[in-house]
Amino acid sequence: MKRKPAPAGMEAMMHTAAATAENGVVPARKKPRAQGTPRGSRFHRKGEGRAAVLFLAPAVIGFVVFYLIPIVRGIHMSFTDWNLLEDAKWVGWDNYARLLSDDTFLNSIKVTVIYVLVNISTQTILGLGIAFLMQKVSQSTLVRSVLLLPWLVPNVTIAAITLFILDPTVGLLNHLIGFIGVGPISFYGNPDIAIYTVALVNSWRNMGYTGLLLFAGMQTIPRMIYEAAETEGASTWQTFRHVTLPLLRPILVMVVVVSMIGSFQIFDTVSVATSGGPGNSTRVIYLYIYEKAFEQFDMGYASAMAVVLMLALVVITIIQLRLARSNESDMN
């Protein structure tokens, strides 16, 4: 029987195999090309997804347990009359209607707005000044640590310390201003200046932390932009106004928004230093909510005030972010 000759390609493969066998080398088998997504890449992505879920799970669980569920519960409670001792009674919108005729609530909103405006403006201006000086004069780690010290001290401790420092009889500050002929001032006891005193005390506490955040934002601005401004003959103030501030805007907006939310939640300094007095001059909204909920046991009405405050903060934050274009950068 006559055998068919091998195809040309097969014959070449046979010659190659024979030649490699003579040299003691066994050719490696060529792997087939994978179709579609490689199997290893698919497993790698699944592993990354599992790791992401694992790392996000504590934050998500914490948000649901400590924020989402209490918010939903608080909103429901705001439509009830509940004194913690008896069963809650559904009253609909009555608690929200009470807010419009509650002079103490309206005054607490006014006092809180004054506090926020004074605190945010002074804290931001002082923080910008600190960040600018750190960039120009010293970037020492020791300086940064000293600036953070007041922020690391709890608000309750700050309030207790300033009670002695600002005391009209034995306070250090009144002794110092007495040398220049200024009489003793009751900073916490005068209803005309008490809320401004609380705001400035908290500004002093937080200005170092705010300054460090802004200083970190300044480090992201390319040095070549400052060099170009110096080449054009720009002064220090012109460089700060036309270069630093526009390029720092996203960080500045973030700092202002976060500081504003924290300022609306002021409670501990007022509770320790003034207890809302004298009169109602420092009775901020958080303190009034606390008094209604845990001193007068009017949980439904306190929840209604908390819901209104939450909605107001959401609206103010959105407006700030939109007007300041926080998601856009002037850096091209």
Proportion of residues in extended strands: under 5%
Can you count the beta strands?
2
Unreliable stretches: 6-14, 16-27
Assign a percent range to the helix content: 55-70%
Cα-to-Cα separation, first versus last residue: 82 Å
* Elements, N to C (H/E): HHEEHHHHHHHHHHH
Computed structural class: mainly alpha
Radius of gyration: 33 Å
- Global shape: globular
Number of helices: 13
Mean pLDDT: 84
Largest sheet: number of strands, sense, barrel closure: 2 strands, antiparallel
Adjacency order of strands in the biggest sheet: 1-2
Give your account of this protein's structure.
This protein has 332 residues and is an all-alpha fold. The protein has 13 helices and two strands. The chain has helices at 8-22, 39-77, 94-101, 103-136, 141-152, 155-165, 172-178, 194-218, 223-231, 236-264, 268-273, 285-294, 299-324; strands at residues 80-81, 89-90. The protein has a two-stranded antiparallel ribbon. The protein is globular.
